[in-house]
Write a structure and sequence with these properties.
Elements: H1 2-16, E1 19-26, H2 27-31, E2 40-47, H3 50-53, E3 62-64, E4 71-77, H4 78-86, H5 90-95, E5 101-104, H6 108-116, H7 122-137, E6 145-147, H8 148-167, H9 175-179, H10 184-197, E7 205-207, H11 210-228, H12 238-251
Parallel strand pairs: 2-4
Antiparallel strand pairs: 1-2, 1-5, 3-4, 6-7
Protein backbone atom coordinates (compact mmCIF):
# COMPACT_ATOMS: atom_id res chain seq x y z
CA UNK A 1 0.00 0.00 0.00
CA UNK A 2 2.86 2.36 0.78
CA UNK A 3 4.13 2.11 -2.79
CA UNK A 4 0.66 2.97 -4.12
CA UNK A 5 0.39 5.96 -1.78
CA UNK A 6 3.79 7.32 -2.83
CA UNK A 7 2.83 6.93 -6.49
CA UNK A 8 -0.46 8.75 -5.83
CA UNK A 9 1.40 11.61 -4.17
CA UNK A 10 3.72 11.91 -7.15
CA UNK A 11 0.68 12.10 -9.45
CA UNK A 12 -0.85 14.81 -7.26
CA UNK A 13 2.35 16.84 -7.45
CA UNK A 14 2.40 16.73 -11.24
CA UNK A 15 -1.32 17.39 -11.71
CA UNK A 16 -1.47 20.37 -9.32
CA UNK A 17 1.91 22.06 -9.91
CA UNK A 18 2.99 21.69 -6.29
CA UNK A 19 5.97 20.46 -4.34
CA UNK A 20 5.01 18.14 -1.48
CA UNK A 21 7.19 19.04 1.48
CA UNK A 22 5.98 16.38 3.87
CA UNK A 23 3.50 13.50 3.71
CA UNK A 24 2.47 11.20 6.53
CA UNK A 25 -0.13 8.87 7.96
CA UNK A 26 -2.67 10.31 10.36
CA UNK A 27 -5.62 8.58 12.04
CA UNK A 28 -5.50 5.28 13.87
CA UNK A 29 -2.53 3.92 11.94
CA UNK A 30 -0.51 6.97 12.86
CA UNK A 31 -1.77 6.78 16.44
CA UNK A 32 -0.64 3.12 16.52
CA UNK A 33 -3.93 1.41 17.28
CA UNK A 34 -5.46 0.47 13.88
CA UNK A 35 -8.22 -2.04 13.25
CA UNK A 36 -8.15 -4.50 10.35
CA UNK A 37 -10.66 -2.32 8.50
CA UNK A 38 -8.96 1.03 9.23
CA UNK A 39 -8.40 3.09 6.11
CA UNK A 40 -5.25 5.01 5.27
CA UNK A 41 -5.42 8.66 6.31
CA UNK A 42 -2.72 10.33 4.22
CA UNK A 43 -1.98 13.99 4.93
CA UNK A 44 0.54 16.25 3.22
CA UNK A 45 1.92 19.78 3.28
CA UNK A 46 2.78 21.43 -0.01
CA UNK A 47 4.09 24.67 -1.52
CA UNK A 48 3.24 26.26 -4.87
CA UNK A 49 5.41 28.48 -7.09
CA UNK A 50 6.02 32.06 -5.92
CA UNK A 51 3.59 33.66 -8.38
CA UNK A 52 0.69 31.73 -6.90
CA UNK A 53 1.02 33.74 -3.71
CA UNK A 54 1.46 37.10 -5.47
CA UNK A 55 -2.20 37.79 -6.08
CA UNK A 56 -4.84 40.18 -4.79
CA UNK A 57 -7.27 37.26 -4.75
CA UNK A 58 -7.62 34.66 -2.03
CA UNK A 59 -6.53 31.29 -3.36
CA UNK A 60 -7.46 27.76 -2.39
CA UNK A 61 -5.14 26.57 0.34
CA UNK A 62 -5.97 22.89 0.40
CA UNK A 63 -6.34 19.91 -1.89
CA UNK A 64 -8.91 17.19 -1.32
CA UNK A 65 -9.72 14.03 -3.24
CA UNK A 66 -12.59 11.53 -3.29
CA UNK A 67 -12.43 9.06 -0.42
CA UNK A 68 -12.54 5.37 -1.26
CA UNK A 69 -12.72 2.31 0.99
CA UNK A 70 -8.99 2.34 1.66
CA UNK A 71 -7.61 5.81 1.08
CA UNK A 72 -8.48 9.19 2.57
CA UNK A 73 -6.00 11.78 1.31
CA UNK A 74 -5.76 15.55 1.44
CA UNK A 75 -3.15 18.26 1.76
CA UNK A 76 -2.70 21.78 3.05
CA UNK A 77 -0.72 24.64 1.58
CA UNK A 78 2.25 25.69 3.72
CA UNK A 79 0.64 29.10 4.26
CA UNK A 80 -2.45 27.48 5.77
CA UNK A 81 -0.29 25.26 7.97
CA UNK A 82 1.67 28.22 9.30
CA UNK A 83 -1.53 30.14 10.04
CA UNK A 84 -2.77 27.18 12.06
CA UNK A 85 0.52 26.86 13.91
CA UNK A 86 0.19 30.48 14.99
CA UNK A 87 -3.17 29.50 16.54
CA UNK A 88 -1.48 26.52 18.24
CA UNK A 89 -3.63 24.14 16.24
CA UNK A 90 -3.02 20.51 17.16
CA UNK A 91 -3.25 19.10 13.63
CA UNK A 92 0.15 20.25 12.32
CA UNK A 93 1.66 19.29 15.68
CA UNK A 94 0.39 15.75 15.19
CA UNK A 95 1.27 15.35 11.52
CA UNK A 96 4.89 16.25 12.18
CA UNK A 97 5.12 13.50 14.81
CA UNK A 98 3.65 10.73 12.68
CA UNK A 99 5.63 7.48 12.84
CA UNK A 100 4.63 6.70 9.23
CA UNK A 101 6.14 9.07 6.68
CA UNK A 102 5.50 8.74 2.95
CA UNK A 103 7.89 11.48 1.88
CA UNK A 104 9.63 14.65 3.03
CA UNK A 105 12.02 17.25 1.73
CA UNK A 106 15.32 17.12 3.58
CA UNK A 107 15.24 19.16 6.78
CA UNK A 108 11.68 20.43 6.35
CA UNK A 109 10.02 18.43 9.12
CA UNK A 110 12.73 19.11 11.68
CA UNK A 111 12.78 22.85 10.93
CA UNK A 112 9.02 23.19 11.16
CA UNK A 113 8.83 21.06 14.30
CA UNK A 114 11.40 23.28 15.98
CA UNK A 115 9.31 26.31 15.05
CA UNK A 116 6.17 24.71 16.48
CA UNK A 117 7.67 24.63 19.97
CA UNK A 118 7.38 28.42 20.13
CA UNK A 119 3.65 28.34 19.32
CA UNK A 120 2.36 25.86 21.86
CA UNK A 121 -0.56 27.17 23.91
CA UNK A 122 -1.74 24.58 26.41
CA UNK A 123 -5.25 25.97 26.83
CA UNK A 124 -6.06 25.80 23.11
CA UNK A 125 -4.70 22.27 22.84
CA UNK A 126 -6.48 21.01 25.96
CA UNK A 127 -9.84 22.42 24.88
CA UNK A 128 -9.45 20.92 21.41
CA UNK A 129 -8.74 17.46 22.78
CA UNK A 130 -11.52 17.65 25.36
CA UNK A 131 -13.95 18.59 22.59
CA UNK A 132 -13.11 15.39 20.72
CA UNK A 133 -13.36 13.30 23.89
CA UNK A 134 -16.70 14.86 24.80
CA UNK A 135 -18.16 14.05 21.40
CA UNK A 136 -17.08 10.42 21.73
CA UNK A 137 -18.39 10.18 25.31
CA UNK A 138 -21.82 11.11 24.00
CA UNK A 139 -21.88 7.93 21.90
CA UNK A 140 -21.91 5.67 24.98
CA UNK A 141 -25.12 3.65 25.23
CA UNK A 142 -26.58 1.67 28.13
CA UNK A 143 -24.19 3.55 30.44
CA UNK A 144 -21.09 1.55 29.50
CA UNK A 145 -21.26 0.32 25.89
CA UNK A 146 -19.35 2.00 23.06
CA UNK A 147 -17.81 1.20 19.69
CA UNK A 148 -14.17 0.31 20.20
CA UNK A 149 -13.14 3.01 17.74
CA UNK A 150 -15.01 5.63 19.76
CA UNK A 151 -13.43 4.46 23.01
CA UNK A 152 -10.06 5.49 21.62
CA UNK A 153 -11.58 8.80 20.53
CA UNK A 154 -12.05 9.30 24.25
CA UNK A 155 -8.80 7.88 25.58
CA UNK A 156 -6.22 9.36 23.23
CA UNK A 157 -7.59 12.95 23.27
CA UNK A 158 -8.15 12.82 27.03
CA UNK A 159 -4.60 11.66 27.68
CA UNK A 160 -3.34 14.28 25.22
CA UNK A 161 -5.17 16.98 27.18
CA UNK A 162 -3.71 15.61 30.41
CA UNK A 163 -0.22 15.68 28.86
CA UNK A 164 -0.62 19.32 27.79
CA UNK A 165 -1.84 20.30 31.24
CA UNK A 166 0.80 18.45 33.22
CA UNK A 167 3.85 18.55 30.95
CA UNK A 168 3.17 21.97 29.37
CA UNK A 169 4.42 20.65 26.02
CA UNK A 170 2.90 19.46 22.76
CA UNK A 171 1.26 16.07 23.30
CA UNK A 172 2.75 13.02 21.55
CA UNK A 173 0.81 11.71 18.57
CA UNK A 174 1.19 8.01 19.35
CA UNK A 175 -0.65 6.21 22.13
CA UNK A 176 2.43 4.65 23.77
CA UNK A 177 3.86 7.72 25.55
CA UNK A 178 0.36 8.87 26.49
CA UNK A 179 -0.36 5.62 28.31
CA UNK A 180 2.48 6.37 30.74
CA UNK A 181 0.21 9.01 32.29
CA UNK A 182 -2.21 6.32 33.46
CA UNK A 183 -1.96 4.11 36.56
CA UNK A 184 -0.12 0.86 35.80
CA UNK A 185 -3.18 -1.36 36.10
CA UNK A 186 -5.16 0.79 33.67
CA UNK A 187 -2.22 0.88 31.25
CA UNK A 188 -2.37 -2.92 31.06
CA UNK A 189 -6.14 -2.85 30.56
CA UNK A 190 -5.85 -0.38 27.69
CA UNK A 191 -3.05 -2.38 26.07
CA UNK A 192 -5.37 -5.40 26.05
CA UNK A 193 -8.08 -3.29 24.41
CA UNK A 194 -5.55 -2.11 21.79
CA UNK A 195 -4.80 -5.75 21.02
CA UNK A 196 -8.52 -6.47 20.77
CA UNK A 197 -8.94 -3.53 18.40
CA UNK A 198 -6.18 -4.90 16.17
CA UNK A 199 -8.34 -7.96 15.49
CA UNK A 200 -11.82 -6.38 15.55
CA UNK A 201 -13.81 -4.15 13.25
CA UNK A 202 -14.02 -0.50 14.28
CA UNK A 203 -17.76 -0.89 14.91
CA UNK A 204 -17.19 -3.64 17.50
CA UNK A 205 -19.08 -2.84 20.71
CA UNK A 206 -17.14 -3.01 23.97
CA UNK A 207 -18.17 -2.54 27.59
CA UNK A 208 -16.11 0.07 29.44
CA UNK A 209 -14.78 -1.28 32.73
CA UNK A 210 -16.04 0.77 35.68
CA UNK A 211 -12.53 1.59 36.90
CA UNK A 212 -11.62 2.91 33.45
CA UNK A 213 -14.85 4.85 33.20
CA UNK A 214 -14.23 6.42 36.61
CA UNK A 215 -10.72 7.42 35.52
CA UNK A 216 -12.06 8.97 32.32
CA UNK A 217 -14.66 11.04 34.15
CA UNK A 218 -12.19 12.20 36.80
CA UNK A 219 -9.53 13.21 34.28
CA UNK A 220 -12.04 14.99 32.07
CA UNK A 221 -13.07 17.16 35.02
CA UNK A 222 -9.46 17.79 36.09
CA UNK A 223 -8.40 18.83 32.60
CA UNK A 224 -11.49 20.99 32.09
CA UNK A 225 -10.92 22.87 35.33
CA UNK A 226 -7.18 23.09 34.72
CA UNK A 227 -7.66 24.68 31.29
CA UNK A 228 -9.88 27.39 32.76
CA UNK A 229 -7.04 28.55 35.02
CA UNK A 230 -4.45 28.93 32.28
CA UNK A 231 -3.54 32.50 31.24
CA UNK A 232 -4.21 33.82 27.77
CA UNK A 233 -1.27 33.85 25.36
CA UNK A 234 -0.59 35.36 21.94
CA UNK A 235 2.15 34.71 19.42
CA UNK A 236 4.20 36.85 17.09
CA UNK A 237 3.98 36.15 13.38
CA UNK A 238 7.49 37.22 12.33
CA UNK A 239 9.19 33.82 12.64
CA UNK A 240 6.37 32.24 10.64
CA UNK A 241 6.70 34.85 7.90
CA UNK A 242 10.42 34.18 7.67
CA UNK A 243 9.83 30.44 7.42
CA UNK A 244 7.13 31.01 4.79
CA UNK A 245 9.33 33.21 2.59
CA UNK A 246 12.32 30.91 2.92
CA UNK A 247 10.22 27.89 1.96
CA UNK A 248 8.79 29.55 -1.14
CA UNK A 249 12.20 30.78 -2.29
CA UNK A 250 13.77 27.38 -1.73
CA UNK A 251 11.24 25.47 -3.81
CA UNK A 252 10.09 28.05 -6.37
CA UNK A 253 10.52 26.55 -9.83
Amino acid sequence: MKTSIIKKLEEIEQANDIKILFACESGSRGWEFPSPDSDYDVRFIYVKPLNFYLSVLDKDDQLGFPINDELDIYGWDIKKVLKLIRKSNTTPFEWLQSPIIYGEQVGFKDELWKLCQHYFYAKTNINHYLGIAKGALETIINDDEIKIKKLFYILRPLLSAKWCLERKTIAPMTIGPLLTLMPKELQEDVKKIIHLKSTSEESYIIKIDQSLKKYINEQFEICSNGAKELPKESFDVEALDVFFRNTINRYDN
